[in-house]
Structures are given as C-alpha cells and as structure tokens.
Amino acid sequence: MRFVLFMTLLCTASAQADDADGWVSLFDGKTLKGWRVAAKPEDVDKKFWTVQDAAITCDSRGRAKHDYVWLLSAREYLDFDLKLKVRSLRDSTGNSGVQVHSRYDEESFWLDGPQIDIHPPGSFRTGLIYDETRGVRHWIAPVLPDSKIEPAQGVKDWKWKHSDDGDGWNDLLIECRAAKIKTTVNGVRVADYDGTGILDDDVHKRRNVGTRGFIALQLHTGSDLFIQFKDILLKPQPDPLPKVIDPGSAAKPPSDATVLFDGKDLSAWTTSDGKTTGWTVKDGVILTETHREGGDHKSWDLLSKRKFGSAQIHVEYSIPPMPDAKGQARGNSGVKIQTRYEVQILDSFGNVTYPQGSNAALYGFFPPLVNASRPPQEWQSFDIVFHAPKCAEGRVAEPGRLTLLHNGILVQDHVPVVPRKGCDPGPASLLLQDHYHPAVTETPMRFRNIWVRELEK
Hints:
Blueprint: H1 2-12, E1 24-25, E2 35-39, H2 41-44, E3 49-52, E4 55-59, E5 69-77, E6 80-88, E7 96-105, E8 110-112, E9 114-118, E10 129-131, E11 138-141, E12 170-177, E13 180-185, E14 188-194, H3 202-207, E15 213-219, E16 226-236, E17 258-261, E18 269-270, E19 279-282, E20 285-288, E21 302-308, E22 311-318, E23 333-337, E24 341-345, E25 379-387, E26 390-392, E27 395-398, E28 400-406, E29 409-417, E30 428-432, E31 446-454
Antiparallel strand pairs: 1-16, 2-5, 3-4, 4-16, 5-15, 6-12, 6-16, 7-8, 7-9, 7-15, 9-10, 10-11, 12-13, 13-14, 17-31, 18-21, 19-20, 20-31, 21-30, 22-25, 22-31, 23-24, 23-30, 25-28, 26-27, 28-29
C-alpha cells in the first residue's frame, strides 16, 4: 500500500509516466516545478538555475563568487533508478554533480549525502562517488582519503563528450538500493559501490542520509560553470519483501530477538563491579534479594553485557507485597534503557505517589496515560519501542522516542526522550534496577522473559 500511495503522489506532482516501463519524469521541460534552490540567502536569488532550450541549466559564467548552490528535489526517495542526459562545455572550469539520498540543513546551509560527480574539466571523474556528508567528505568510489584524485584512479575506458561532440548529450544512469549505488556513464559502468556499514553508519544516521533522502543537482562553490540537464526520469523500486520471522508466543520470544534471560542463568548480565551480588536465579526467575542493614546503601544494578541502540524491549516483572511501605518505598525498581532512560517500576496498585514516578512512567518526565498496574505478586509486562536520540557535534539533533505498552495497554505514546546532559551517543546496556530506599531494607523483585529486538544495527 505504501508503494502504491508513493507512486500516486509522485505521478500527481505534474509528472508524466511511461506506463510501459514505469519511468516518471522529474522535469516537465518548461519550468523548475518540483525543484527548489537550496543555498545561502545571498545566493538563492542569483538565478544560477533556470530552464533554457527545454533543459535545466546552471550558468555561473563570470559569476564565480558564490558558495554551494543546489537544485533540490521537492520530495525524498528510497530505492530507485535515475536516468538523465547531461551536456557540458569543453571550456567550462566548474564542477557539478548529482546528489542522492541527501538532506539539506537549513541552518548550516549544507547538503549531506553521497554525490555522483560530474566534472567537465576532468571528465574521467564523472560517475565516481564523493561523500559530501559532514564528518566524512572524501571519495568513496574509489575509496580515497580526501578530495584529491588522479586519472589513473578512475575507470580505464571512460566516455564523455562536450557540447561540440555530436549532439553533445551524455547519458547518466544511477541505481540506488539502500546503501548500494551503481553508476553508468554513456554505457560504461563507472561505479558499483556497496556502502553497507558506511552509508548506513552512525554518522549518516545522525544526518538521516545515505539510504534515503532527496535528489539534488550541484553548483560547486566558486565554480565558473555552464551545464545542462534534461530527460530526468526516475523509476521507483518496490520495497523488498519483509523478512519472515517466527513471532513467538507469551512464553516464546520472536525468532529474531536477542534473549537476555531464558530462565536458566545470568550469563548475559553483569554489574558495575563485575559481580552479580544480590541477584540469583530460582525456578526460572531472576530474583534480587539484597538485604541492607547498618546503613549499607550500596546497590547492584544488573546490566546486560550486550549493548543496544534503538530497540523493541520485552520485560516481565513481579512486585513484592510491601503493605507497610508507602509511595516510592513500595516495590521500587526500574528498567533503564541504555542505562539512561528509566521506565519506572513501582507498586501503583492502590499506592499514591507523584505521577512522574508511578509505575510505567518515563521517570521524571512523563506519567503513564492510565494506571494499568496489577496487584503485587502478579506478573506484569513492559513492551517498549525505543528510538534513540540522534546526536551531532555533541548536541541533540533529533530527540529519541518511546512507546510503552504496560500489560498490553498503551501508556506512553511516542513521547520524546532527551538526554539530561549533552547528547549520549549510545549504544549501551539495558539495566534492571536494584533500587535503594532508606525506608526499607530490601525489595525482592522478580524478573523473567527478557528479550530485545534491535531496530537499527
């Protein structure tokens, strides 16, 4: 359904499709409808990008005092084939290119993402791939340490013609599949790049580029350039079939889950001092039975040895009966995601406390939408969907998000998750809290059936 809707939206954007093979036009031959200029304010209105002779034309001749100026598509794309025709002047000294799976930062005036190079002064480079993502900025096909490149580092039998060679038009084909990019120039395969582990790494995820994003035509900073583009056609590729998994059952985790406790032992867990003092396994259940007397305030939180970023998390727990305790002293524990963000565990069955500290609260931030707590000693469940915050240059570029089902009831609905200080990079351990409260000497919590499905690897 998503693919059908995507095609419908694309085709209604004044584009014309060839019903025979599915190619969709991104340029109507007359206007820049469906495109916009992205640049610093002083360069936006200089009319570097226009339509001339039924072609998108970039002309900065005699006006080289400018920064980067991109012509950006109005919508973003996932997997696709893109073909277009390009014409350059032999005496053009400027640089251009086609960026794919890219995203423009309106504050920094920068377009992050991979670029297929078009370079009239050194046409051997055309079709090679340069990564413009901040924090990367070097050739990736071929892999080189910076922006320097020599003819011998390109393909041997490259082909390119300028406007005075025949009709002057060159054919460029770009095939994008997730982090994989292939380029073909005038029938010659120039790049066959598998960026898995690179274009989908943490640097690119923070910018939300590399595997999805916008298409853009580039005018390089300081370029004296004349170049034209026409017959810009795109064929969206259908999404791959979803991976088949066994969804499991109440007693059986999904087949693609990482099981952190299967009822046998604590081999997947540790503590800050490497000892599991106070934690035992009995009858298929994790028990914490730490007894504190004489002012011993030490606690031994249990940490998963495996570390996680964005994830789906399932935890089942049982709160002990503590009728003489009240408020935060009554059955207090927690599940901390990445050891940083606590989903509160507390006996909230007839026990009143502050809302942000009640059972199933995102502790200190959001109370649950409803109180779905069961009585003490009954088994309860948390099903958490957690998307980690995205960080850039030590600050939060995008807040995280958390959704929580408590005993099957939605109690946190896509609430924002923001680090208290700076921006935590992740991934980190899942933590089961051994909570200390001065009003009680012990809180014998029970846990079972703990598993995690990683959403981003």
